[in-house]
Amino acid sequence: MKGWPAHLAALALTALGLLAATFFIGRVVPIDPVLAAIGERAPPEAYRTMREAFGLDRPVFEQFLRYLWQVLRLDFGDSILTARPVARDLLRVFPATFELATVAMLLGIGFGLPLGVAAAFWHGRWPDALARGVALLGYSVPVFWLGLMGLLVFYAGLGWTGGPGRLAIWLEDDLPRVTGLMTVDAVLAGHWAALASALGHLVLPASVLGLFSAAAIARMTRAALIEQLAQDHVTAARARGIPEWRVVLRHGLRPAAAPLVNTVALSYGHLLEGSVLTEIVFAWPGLGLYLTQALLSADMNAVLGATLLVGVLFIGLNALSDHLVRRLDARSR
Amino acid sequence: MSERIGWAAVGLLVALAVLGPWLGGDPTAQDLGARLLPPSAAHWFGTDHLGRDLFARVVGGAGITLAIVVLVVAVSAPLGLVIGAVAGTMGGAVEAVLMRLTDIALALPRLVLALALVAALGPGIENAVLAIALVAWPSYARVARAEASVLRQADFILALRQMGAGETRIVLVHMLPLLAGSVIVRATLDMAGIVLTAAGLGFLGLGAQPPMPEWGAMVAQGRPYLLDQWWVATLPGAAILIVSLGFNLLGDGLRDRIDLRSRE
Amino acid sequence: MRAARWALILLGLTPFAAQATVPRDTLVVATQLDDLISLDPAEIFEIGGAEVAANLYRRLIGFEPGLWDRPVGDLAQIWQVEREGRRYVFVLRTDARFASGRTVNAEDVVGSWRRVLAKDKAPAAVLRSIGLSPERLSIAQGQVAIDLPEALAPGLVLAVLASTAASVIDLQAIADKPEGWLGRNSAGAGAFELAHWSPQERVTLRRNPHHPQPATMARIVLRHVAEPTTQRLMLQRGDVDLARNLGPDLMAGLGRFPDLAVAAYPKAALYYLAVNRRRPTLAEDGALAAIKSALDVPALVAATLGARGRPHAGIVPAGFLGAAEEGHAAPKPAPWPAGLTLDVRAAPPTLDLAEAIQAQLAKAGIAVAIQPGDSKTVLTRYRARRHDLVIARWAPDFADPHANAEPFSRNPDNGDAAGERTPAWRNGWVDAEAMALVEQAVREFDSERRAALYRRLQAIHRQRGPFVILAQEVEIVAMRRGLAGLVNGPLPEMLRFESVTKP
Fold this sequence. Notes:
The structure holds 3 protein chains of 3 kinds. Chain A has 14 helices and no strands. By secondary structure, chain A is an all-alpha fold. Chain A folds into 2 domains: about 5-70, no CATH class; about 85-330, MetI-like fold. Chain A starts with a helix and ends with a helix. In chain A, about 50% of the residues are buried. Chain B has a single domain, classed as Orthogonal Bundle (MetI-like fold). Chain B starts with a helix and ends with a helix. Chain C is an alpha+beta fold. In chain C, about 30% of the residues lie in helices and about 25% in strands. In chain C, the strands form 4 sheets. In chain C, strands 1, 8, 9, 10, 11, 12, 13, 14, 15, 16 and 17 form an 11-stranded mixed beta sheet that branches. In chain C, strand 14, helix 12 and strand 15 form a beta-alpha-beta unit. Mean pLDDT of chain C is about 90; it is low at about 1-5 and about 5-20. Classes of the chains: A mainly alpha, B mainly alpha, C alpha+beta.
């Protein structure tokens, strides 16, 4: 192990790579950002002033340094689309994605873990086949399509779940924003109708999004457990007459914790990303929707800011999972 | 068994891609008088909002999907293979730099970067392929490097070095063929992901462009009719599901076999 | 499997969440707010902004619902035209009050307009189109006076004063506010004030209690719902009262729901196909003629826009002074072998229009490749004259034929560095006769003669203009049956919620 300075340096280098990537992408856009900002009927003088204000008349390298300096100060500039600072927009939209991805993750663990354990426990029997089927489906289904089908059946058809959005629209003004997490804010305000509405709106998109992580976790749990349960000390434990479920928990699951933590962290990163398509289908006003709208409007400040946020979270989750895995490994040794 | 289902699904995709023009008819022929017809004997999958036969379009989409998958793999796998092989064979500073680059690329959010890249390059099937390929190479580089760094110590490579063979020659002639196998397995496993990413880009309007019958774009175009004419969006989506399921089954089967072999 | 059981219990609870309904005093509208950037009347140049501002601000001049070519007084009680049409004097109503409770006075009117001119954003150009400048505005005995540099058709002057740019702002309320405050807040005398706005999500309007005729609804919630299918879903489930962006086929499916109704509102916006005469392949007159004669416009409009558009052939929208009555000519395909590109915004209905046009031109031997993009990309290419063909939508800035006649005809400098980038310039079209007619019509006092001039202008356009005007937009609104009182005129500033009632 090289110690934390090496890890930090690696992190910083990765972050710089991310910044270079986003900056490069921002440069090759075939859209005139000035025009996008001031509208097509603006006079030419206004156009020139705006171009200079954006720094678009400077050399590219200077623009990159300028961009780095701005990012270091958490200044991503103003969004063209919302005419507000991107940093504030990100702060506003991120909780929605965080809430969705977290609930999806919890559902993914809640379904994936028992399914994986069952599959390993009844290896080769029907729970194993079920787990395999769910995993395959999770990896194969186009999430935007599944979302549409879900809306069609559970919202339009059966009326079991809330529809698009995070809350019944007329309740949106009643709920003071504290954390930006609708469920938490509803509890803080003691607004039970809003809590019910928020949960009703969460369940469908979170299930659709969570299917992927349920698949990943079920598959990982099953593989890790089967490997652990085949080892000698497990056979020895069984021979001592310890109940099978305790064998599975103590000798199977505990050593499998490291790869599991890794899977959870990685699939959480994927959820943050995967929320792009899910948010579009469910009109979920989060980071994914913000990013897509910005992409389609040449709102490069917003695109770079949002991509950067996703990237930093991604890098952070990777680093965190590495760290946890190292500690778990050290302890099991 | 399930690998055989995978072979069947992928075989069906290839067959449709090759035979499509004879089988389905013209996927872009419009008949504004026959809009949004439900599935029937004349139109097996019904028609879309411009009166185009959906069976012809779903069949026509097979070729596009296959082309995307093949092109992405053809661009990204060799790229990753070469980078991984060079790093693994040479070791030292070259390996450190190349693998640091790979790690950086692996630590970035792939879908979001592909999205941003396509939006920047301009929507279209070529740019979608390029964007997916540009974010897909690092995993191949890792696989190739891992094997190459083991092989580096192999007797015959050491012997080659002692005989004075150049590094370029060692990488090109001796390493690449040995690494190709595991990279191909990795690529098969990735193909379902490529199908889904391409469909996602198409759904967002960033992939294949009209009137091309790309499945993701067809789901997006069918979305306005989802409530009253379910077939327009549902059937192309089901096609995506079947093909990506096929690739997954195939990849799992291949991996299990290769893993078994390497364990033995 | 305890987790699974909990999830099932959670699922079981959700039906309760889906059953609550919209309160009686709240109107929830599903709409598309993606172009809402600023709510400051000195900055608004998008449709969404103008629609919201119409409910927040009043102007001197307005329209009776349904009579959109006849301006009447809004804040102005009466007015006089003096000095052969060069001086206008307006007497203000005394009962109009801002949301702050203060009575609207002449200083607010003149100050608001001066503010627009000083900010010099897109709305300033609208006020300048009749020659307004700060020194031409004055106040005499509590009345507002305007001295125009030259006599213009009165219909034009009043239409400009009825536009969003001429909105009257509570200047005292914004005096101590920071720069940019008005972009995100409101200070008007309209029937509502702005209660909340989160960009790309939601705008909430609250009733202005000081309005002489307070609005029927206490609250209007405009919710951004990008997808038409989603809008329809929410309407079906009772989550919204009104949906504004359903396509024709989503409308057709509404027949199954007895508690929903549909209303059609003709709009002034035009969909058109533009032909770039700067392109070598398109410079010859034969190419333009071949494209124009190959299209069966009524058929393609019916197939793609359905009830959302009416085939319309002239640059002056139906309902405006001087709108031409002739429709589209029957197609006479004249082969013109050429490979062209067609730029279009990749969304319905423009993408559908593009595909239908592509198919029709193919029959005439004209191969067209569609280049879809988002609206900004298409606009960038169009503005740089890098297109062959483009499908675009045009909405007039104010309710007068001049708002369309000038941009579609005027092109004084056809060079690539020109400052005026009108649609005529973008397609490289220079026609001295058309430009002269525009100048003549804007100075014609007699509306009969003025209408005749616009009809002559449109005949020129049909013969040799680079535009194929396809259709005039019709907004189809789906709503809860029994909902009444929505005012939705041809221009965005004519959308009003103040007298909406719910069953």
